[in-house]
Design a protein that fits this description.
757 residues, globular, Spore Coat Polysaccharide Biosynthesis Protein SpsA, Chain A, alpha+beta, ten-stranded mixed sheet
Length: 757
């Protein structure tokens, strides 16, 4: 493979070196299109020939387009004395850059383009030799932006911290800095690297026996574990299978680092009488175990009966075959002690395969009202206050009385509609506390009926339909009468080739017709642009052109537009977006018209049909980043979150709706401190802190060409402005930026792919 095309039309410098040949060594073959390759396995490998990197500090620059997300590339430098491998989680559509210290005497360099099967093409590949001073500056800058231990520190403060660590450890500070730098590139995929994460991260974080013993207040955690065995055929094979599944469940209770006050096991009569010796052995092993014979005829009835034997403050239903993690009760107790108002504890969970190997971790967000309506994201790892637990009779459950997944969901929905329920009554436990048995999923194809009953009980009117994934729902909220006027604000300056497709698409591809389109012209001078503005305003009475005759300030321009808007709903719209179907604005207006909803964001795609915006996660990259960026259009996302409406802390103003009364209540966008960047994140946080829920919906889809009109921050002035805006956001919202309730502390703040931290 000839690599010369990756750097054509660029000036050549002695310290810029690009390989001339990529020689396939294994698991690679040329694809049908020129320049494309197919990876045939998890370990494809090229040998690089030609201009190998110079020894010392180098910046590796790689752009690799591929049809697979959440994969990692790696480079290996081989010399006579040593071998060095560095990983690069490549970003689609962007040049990935990372520092590497190339040792002396490198004779061979190999490149693994991805660690999965798929198709890819290399668009850019080079090594740039750097002076040590420049390299250290870039290294420290990344630590400041990406490493949680150095957040909000200046570069000098980071260097001082590193030197203090070096003195204590008798090591070079540069060595420690490089290790911390390299840690920001580690990407643990939840699919491919979960076992590695368990070994290297989870086990390191596990409490020691001493920590468990010394946290005295957790020992007051008054909890009962309830195991109810559904009634089935009492054949010898069925009873043996039930007994086998109970072994692991009971063992997981017996092995808790913090013992429960009580464990109650309800068994059907054949098992209760036929297993006496086996049960007595378990009771000797676990004195807290109480075994009860039950004649209940459904799982719902079994749960009600189990509650009658429990006198303790907290209860947790454990399904036969499922297992508690060794420190499950300790973590539950710790969070309960820190959150005395909590009535529910929701922990993270995973699943077991037939060999007992853990997989598919579900690292959940905190309280997320709209995600809960979309799917039962709380799962099985839920511990309730006994007095708070809803009593669901078999008659109330109908055909689902024997479906524990359905029961769990309905119980959670019941709790959330209690009088005076608040998010403080729910506490998230950010630890894997529950392991689901293989093949135990009983997920209905739809929970539509459960959500319909819930909304009716809440006095809310909405249409509930099956969602984009099995077991998910789409809620269609009623459109207000009369329909609100929506004022769409589109800032622009020249660039008619960008503006025309945007405006024409909005006018032609929007079924919701009750809107005005305010084009906010920021000193356009292009004759063609000015002619188009005149033409489109004359052609469609919904279009009005307003002039903003001042230097570019995104916040000021949009605040000016909002001041002139007639609508009760404001829409912040970039001039480089294009609606995909006519329902986009209808969906967003239905959502934003709900009185408890603040900002509403859409699902945005790059022109190549990869995800540009799946909502904003606070803390990514040090401040905020787009969830699931560069995922393929048809991918479900982590825990299916690309296919369901949900609450997020922020959404991008490339396409954002909010009621004008809410916009005015938070004083709009910050003109003084955030002229260009992060003003939408700031707006969303202000709205959230006022008490509204921000929402992202996958049912409003648009293309977004992302900041084409403004250009990149590639000048000293733009860089200085960006640093100032970044510093303002860190100073103003620092604590909130580091703990997004719509995310999970076990997930990365470096990458946008929901990989593990």
């Amino acid at each position: 493979m000839n690599a010369n095309h990756t750097s054509r039309d660029k000036p050549w410098y002695p310290h810029h070196r690009s390989p001339q040949q990529f020689v396939p060594l294994q698991q690679l073959k040329a694809a049908s299109r020129p320049g494309e390759w197919q990876s045939l396995g998890a370990e494809p490998l090229f040998a690089l020939e030609g201009q190998l990197p110079l020894p010392g500090w180098n910046m590796v620059e790689i752009a690799c387009e591929r049809d697979v997300t959440s994969v990692v590339s790696s480079l290996t430098f081989e010399s006579a004395r040593r071998s060095l491998t560095v990983e690069l989680p490549l970003r689609v559509g962007k040049i990935t850059k990372r520092l590497v210290y190339v040792p002396w005497g490198v004779k061979r360099v190999t490149f693994a383009p991805m660690n999965a099967t798929g198709t890819f093409s290399l668009e850019h590949f080079r090594f740039v030799w750097l002076t040590p001073m420049f390299a250290y500056n870039r290294l420290l800058q990344r630590l400041s932006n990406m490493h949680e231990h150095y957040r909000d520190l200046s570069l000098k403060e980071i260097e001082l911290s590193l030197k203090q660590q070096a003195r204590k450890q008798s090591r070079k500070w540069q060595t420690i800095a490089l290790e911390d730098y390299e840690s920001t590139f580690i990407s643990f995929s939840t699919r491919r690297h979960y076992q590695q994460w368990i070994r290297q991260v989870e086990r390191r974080r596990a409490p020691s026996d001493h920590e468990v013993a010394m946290r005295h207040h957790v020992h007051s955690f008054d909890c009962s574990i309830l195991l109810v065995c559904p009634i089935g055929e009492a054949t010898p094979d069925a009873l043996q299978a039930l007994q086998n599944s109970l072994k692991g469940s009971l063992a997981s209770v017996a092995e808790q680092s913090l013992s429960p006050r009580q464990a109650v096991l309800l068994l059907p009569s054949p098992a209760f009488h036929g297993w006496q010796a086996w049960l007595e052995e378990w009771q000797r092993e676990m004195p807290v175990l109480r075994v009860v014979e039950s004649h209940a005829t459904s799982v719902a009835a079994l749960r009600i009966e189990a509650l009658s034997y429990c006198k303790h403050s907290w209860i947790w239903f454990l399904r036969p075959g499922d297992r508690l993690a060794a420190n499950a009760l300790f973590h539950m107790a710790s969070i309960a002690a820190d959150n005395p108002q909590a009535q529910m504890l929701i922990a993270d969970e995973d699943s077991l395969d037939e060999e007992g190997v853990r997989h598919s971790p579900q690292f959940k967000p905190e309280w997320n009202a709209d995600l809960l309506l979309s799917m039962p994201y709380m799962g099985r790892a839920v511990c309730y206050q006994h007095r708070f637990f809803p009593r669901l009779s078999a008659d109330m459950c109908g055909d689902n009385a024997n479906n524990p997944d359905w029961l769990d969901y309905v119980q959670t929905l019941d709790v959330t509609r209690r009088d005076h329920f608040s998010s403080q009554q729910l506490a998230h436990v950010p630890h894997i506390a529950y392991h689901g048995a293989p093949g135990a999923a009983t997920t209905p194809s739809s929970y539509v009926g459960a959500v319909e009953q819930h909304l009716e009980a809440c006095g809310q009117v909405a249409q509930v339909a099956p969602g984009l994934l099995p077991g998910t729902q789409r809620i269609r909220w009623p459109m207000p009468t009369p329909e609100p006027l929506v004022s769409l604000l589109v800032p622009t300056r020249d660039g008619v080739d960008i503006l025309r497709p945007c405006v024409d698409a909005i006018l032609d591809r929007t079924d919701y017709s009750h809107f005005e389109l305010l084009i906010l012209d920021n000193q356009s001078s292009c004759k063609e642009t000015l002619a188009y503005l005149d033409e489109v305003a004359a052609r469609d009475t919904r279009v009005k052109v307003l002039s903003w005759n001042a230097p570019f300030n995104y916040s000021s321009i949009n605040n000016y537009g909002a001041d002139h808007a007639r609508g009760s709903v404001i829409g912040l719209i970039n001039n480089d977006v294009e609606p995909i179907d006519g329902q986009w604005l209808t969906e967003m207006v239905e959502q934003v018209s709900r009185p408890d909803i603040g900002c509403v964001g859409a699902k945005l795609y790059y022109p190549n049909d990869t995800i540009q915006h799946g909502g904003v996660i606070l803390g990514l990259g040090g401040l905020a980043g787009h969830a699931h960026r560069f995922f393929q259009r048809d991918e479900d996302g982590y825990m299916g979150r690309l296919k369901v409406a949900q609450n997020l802390s922020a959404v991008t103003a490339a396409c954002l709706l909010l009621r004008k009364e809410v916009f005015d209540a938070v004083n709009g966008l910050n003109e003084e401190d955030l002229a260009v960047a992060y003003n939408d994140v700031d707006l969303c946080i202000k709205v959230r802190e006022t008490g509204y829920r921000n929402l992202w919906t996958p049912f409003a889809e648009l293309y977004h060409h992302e900041s084409i009109s403004r250009g990149a921050d590639d000048t000293p002035e733009k860089r200085a402005r960006w640093l100032s805006e970044y510093a303002y956001m860190r100073k103003t919202w620092g604590e909130l930026l580091d703990s997004d309730p719509a995310y999970n502390p076990n997930l990365t703040l470096v990458h946008e792919d929901f990989s593990l931290r």
